[in-house]
């Protein structure tokens, strides 16, 4: 790979510059492009393009010169839109395809509007195609090794989440709690739905992800037979939402999450479909209990057993 760059700036005909075939960026927003074009129309191209020189033999034995863009795709497009006949350029010698690809990727990474997914894929490409380490990539783009490593990890998320990140429906901070659930895809998708529908903050998403992780550990400690995990899964399938059963030394707690009014209606319909059992009135004091005859005492005792059995979690179903 040649490192020789001419220090002189040349003005070359814009119609002789062809696009970089290794350009990684395919989409250019129309609004910012018009703004750049207007700026170029008023002040000119303030930062020169970088091109490679290509000489082609003609039929009459002469040479014709063209240029292939290495860096400056937006400036080239905006200059054409502004109607410029010539553009300033640095002419780089050599015709190294890998050099052009690397420079195109580096230039793409220097964009202010680059999103996290584009950045992650560019880092991954530098690592895979150029065998660069995280540290070397960091030096090229002015970032730390940790930043590069954490950015590349984003690509472990499912495509629908990456699409939401590219489209701005979630932000880069939301990827941290989602990554915490990469081994639990169902929980990850449920949390993703909460983030996009309920618009929860990064802090709230992290709190939910940590709670899921802690609950997983607690269930392993308190439920060696996984009985409650099976019940929890059945409840989640029936209600169509996240359900947490938090066992304690005595009793426990059930938490049912919902994301939309429609989810709440569904949960209410399921819950209301469970028949309500009328209970026998209970005596309020010990004195009243003493005045009950033996038959009444038997009925009260039987009623208490029925109620206890009704709320036994082993008999609970939806």
Radius of gyration: 33 Å
Strand content: 5-15%
Taking all residues together, what is the mean pLDDT?
A: 78
State the strand order across the main sheet: 1-5-3-4-2
For the report, how would you describe the main beta sheet? 5 strands, mixed
Number of helices: 14
CATH fold name of the domain at 5-112: Conserved hypothetical protein from pyrococcus furiosus pfu- 392566-001, ParB domain
Query: SSE order, as H and E?
Result: EEHEEHEHHHHHHHHHEEHHH
Separation, N- and C-terminal Cα atoms: 68 Å
CATH class of the domain at 5-112: Alpha Beta
What is the quaternary state of this protein?
single chain
Which structural category do the helix and sheet elements fall into? alpha/beta
Helical proportion, percent range? 40-55%
Based on the coordinates given, report the CATH architecture of the domain at 5-112. Alpha-Beta Complex
Shape: elongated
Based on DSSP secondary structure assignment, what is the total number of beta strands? 7
Structure report:
The protein is an alpha/beta fold and 318 residues long. Among the domains are: 5-112, Conserved hypothetical protein from pyrococcus furiosus pfu- 392566-001, ParB domain, CATH 3.90.1530.30; 115-156; 274-318, no CATH class. Helix content is 52%, strand content 14%. It is built from 14 helices and seven strands. The protein has helices at residues 30-43, 73-81, 97-109, 116-130, 134-141, 145-153, 159-166, 175-180, 185-198, 202-222, 227-239, 261-272, 286-290, 294-310, and strands at 5-13, 17-18, 49-57, 63-71, 86-92, 243-247, 252-256. A five-stranded mixed beta sheet has the order 1-5-3-4-2. A two-stranded antiparallel sheet has the order 6-7. α3 packs antiparallel against α4, α5 (134-141) packs across α6 and α9 (185-198) packs antiparallel against α10 (202-222). The radius of gyration is 33 Å and the shape is elongated.
């Amino acid at each position: 790979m040649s490192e020789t760059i001419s220090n002189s700036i040349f003005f070359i005909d814009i119609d002789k510059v062809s696009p970089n075939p290794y350009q990684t960026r395919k989409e250019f927003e129309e609004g910012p492009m018009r703004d750049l074009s207007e700026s170029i129309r008023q002040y000119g191209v303030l930062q020169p393009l970088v091109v490679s020189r290509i000489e082609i033999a003609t039929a009459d034995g002469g040479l014709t010169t063209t240029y292939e863009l290495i860096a400056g795709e937006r400036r080239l497009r905006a200059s054409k839109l502004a109607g410029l006949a010539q553009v300033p350029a640095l002419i780089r010698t050599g015709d190294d395809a890998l050099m052009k690809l690397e420079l195109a990727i580096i230039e793409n990474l220097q964009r202010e509007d680059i999103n996290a997914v584009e950045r992650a894929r560019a880092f991954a490409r530098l690592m895979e195609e150029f065998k660069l380490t995280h540290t070397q990539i960091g030096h090229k783009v002015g970032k730390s090794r940790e930043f590069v490593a954490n950015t590349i990890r984003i690509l472990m998320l499912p495509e629908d989440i990456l699409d939401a990140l590219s489209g701005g429906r979630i932000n880069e901070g939301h990827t941290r709690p989602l990554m915490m659930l990469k081994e639990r895809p169902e929980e990850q998708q449920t949390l993703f739905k909460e983030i996009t529908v309920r618009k929860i903050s990064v802090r709230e998403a992290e709190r939910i992800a940590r709670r899921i992780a802690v609950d997983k550990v607690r269930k392993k400690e308190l439920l060696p037979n996984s009985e409650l995990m099976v019940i929890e899964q059945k409840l989640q399938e029936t209600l169509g939402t996240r359900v947490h059963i938090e066992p304690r030394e005595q009793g426990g707690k059930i938490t049912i999450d919902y994301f939309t009014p429609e989810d709440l209606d569904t949960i209410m319909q399921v819950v209301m479909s469970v028949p309500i059992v009328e209970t026998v009135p209970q005596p309020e004091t010990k004195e009243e209990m003493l005045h009950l005859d033996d038959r009444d005492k038997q009925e009260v005792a039987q009623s208490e057993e029925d109620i206890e059995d009704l709320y036994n979690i082993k008999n609970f179903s939806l």
